[in-house]
Amino acid sequence: MIKNYFKVAIRNLARHKAFSLINITGLAIGIASCLLIFTVLKYELSYDKFQPNYKQIYHVVTEDKNSEGVFYNPGIPIPALEALRIDFPQVTTGALLSNYGSQVTILGSDASNTSPDKKFIEKTGFFFADPEFFKVFHYNWLSGSPEILKDPNVTVLTRSTAERYFGDWKTATGKFIKLDNAVTVKVAGILEDVPVNSDFPLAIVTSMETAKAAGTIYNYSDRWGSITSNYQLFMLLPKDVAADKVSQQLKNFSTKHYASRTRTVRSNLLQPLSELHFDKRMESFGDHITDRSTLWTLTLIGLFIILMACINFINLSTAQAVGRSKEIGIRKVLGSFRRQLWAQVMGETAFIVIGSVLLAIILAIIFLPFIKHVTSIHESLSILNWQTLLFVMLLTVLVTFLAGIYPALILSGFKPVLALKNKITSASVGGISLRRGLVVAQFAISQVLIIGTIIAVTQMKFIRNADLGFSKEALLVINANTDSLAQSRQKAFGQKLSQLPGVESVSFSSDVPSSDNNWSTNFAYDHRPDEEFGLYIKLADENYFKTYGLQFVAGRAFSESDTTNEVVVNETLIKKLGIKEPALALGKEIRMGNQPWKTIVGVSKDFKTNSLKEDIKPLIIAEKREFYTVTGVKLRSSNLHNTQAAVESAWNEVFPEYAYTTAFLDDDLANFYKQDEQLALLYQIFACIAIFISCLGLYGLVSFMAVQKTKEIGVRKVLGASVKNIIFLFSKEFTILILVGSLIAVPVAYYVMNSWLQDFVYRIKISPVVFIIAIFISVVIAWLAVGYKSIKAAIANPVKSIRTE
Predict the structure, then answer these.
(1) For 101, which DSSP code?
(2) Which residues partner with 598 through β-bridges?
(3) Is 508 within 8 Å of 690 (Cβ atoms)?
(4) Which pTM value belongs to this model?
């Protein structure tokens, strides 16, 4: 019997080649999309799960409350570590201090090597840790042990880092490297490479004692009021210690240590390691945070795509059921039970689905290497693993059930008398209302994705073209950690650059105008008590305003000075202080923290201090040369390549010990929105896939209708119907269904995309035009899909059409 069913399935596929191709293609594309989405989801959800104590590790974060609201920071004051170890002896607490964009100089076997030939800029930086960190987190040691990190001036490298520095990791132990041209450390251990799916990209781990000894170089501070996201603590809770109990104890700890030391209501909270990769409130050490809502969006898109493919299958299968009515009638007369016929149809569906799955796997393998262009995944992925195999098996069963259950019930339910008398029509099979409903659902999904695409692309275009309040074009940014030697040469370097014909101006600063830096402090204005909100800080020289094209609404830039006497503030600070006119702030004094009072000499026009997802911060710009780690070079737009080469030559001449690393400011700013750009691209890709699958279904249905209505079309033409009338006959129903689908799609798309736009403080308004465009696109695409078959049916010879059986 099974052999017979198999033969019948093959014959049906061969007899209806076009419909078989449409079904298999639609299902294959839908399943391949689901496979790729599943691969991305599986990767994102796997972060740090290789840690054996994954469920027992917690991140100690900081919450600050003031009159402005609630703010979160992944960091914690450095002296809190020892206090936590004293107050929480039942848990293991480890610390990690990061330093980004650092230079590593390879000294080799000679710690006093004065002419090293290898210099590296580690963009992901390096870390400082103590042995306790490796009791919280587990990593494989190829050489050495965590205890070596008790001593100062020792470091640990991962295998790949050691091979990059020394060629062979086995020979790296005992050799020396220099960090930021300031601290020489000895390689005392080797770690196995950390998996890429981790928010702890360890490559170089130096002892925390080294950071202590280096002092201000790595911002190691013993002040309770100072907090930085670069210093983070992690707790390993024993299995018999509840997280809720520790959280309650942390409230008491916060009251004990912060009440008299901070201007805000500060407390420490526990964040499960499982939330670290998904919490948008706080940055992690990894290269990106994936919002769970984004993962839900991808999941829904995958479900929508596969659902649309199943709708195609149901529509075509029920429409084709008329042609199989006699076959079913004969089988029933010869003794077949309904359950046997049901099993036959489900078996045929399974056969098609399995073929589609095999094709989908091939498509997924082909397109998998391109996944990095639409996600933040950098490692090579594979779909040939047991999780994906299990997913494919479950998906095969689900698709077979969704696509086959209704056609199987319809076909197996035919009454043999009506079937043999050929009285079963396409109008009665499956119900016209059902097929219409399925087409409406299909185009509603397509329109949601089209609207999402239009809004996402428009928002990202708005972001790219937004006025940031400063100049970002042709602005070369050179990053380097500073020390006293570099500071002594900065002026000479600036003079050398200013003499280059392609350079307009040069500025040294701690930060570019718009960045992810949120360095803030308490402050007082005009000899009043400290204000209730924080003041954000950027340190820069007198050329900062000219180089970055900052404008003034009152006053001027500060003058060059060896000491910070004059400062510039922004409009937002003036407004928050309740000052009606910016000029009224000129000559007033302001104090940062416990520093001396400084005179306000200028009020800059507001510029975007961070990404467009954040409000403009109240800001002060002051001089302090020891913090200048950024060199901004404004270039003339002509002959950029030669000017860049001249800048590099000047750098190597003045700073031969320092590696040269640059980026254009507009490229750096684009990184703020990398994930949002990727999401917009995902919408475009899946909207195209959804439209393609919808068009496949429409083409199949119109093809079937053309066959079913052959005689009707012939009669209509004989009675005087024009080609236009015939085309209208085919198009009007689908046009109405698309318009009905839009009534569902518009509110859904508005809700989803309006929620996404809430992430941006500066955002577009969703215009009704967006929805009109989406509906118009859907209608036009549908007309194109049905046009060919409609025209072909309309111009057919009516005599042949009438003679058709």
Answers:
(1) S
(2) 590
(3) no
(4) 0.83
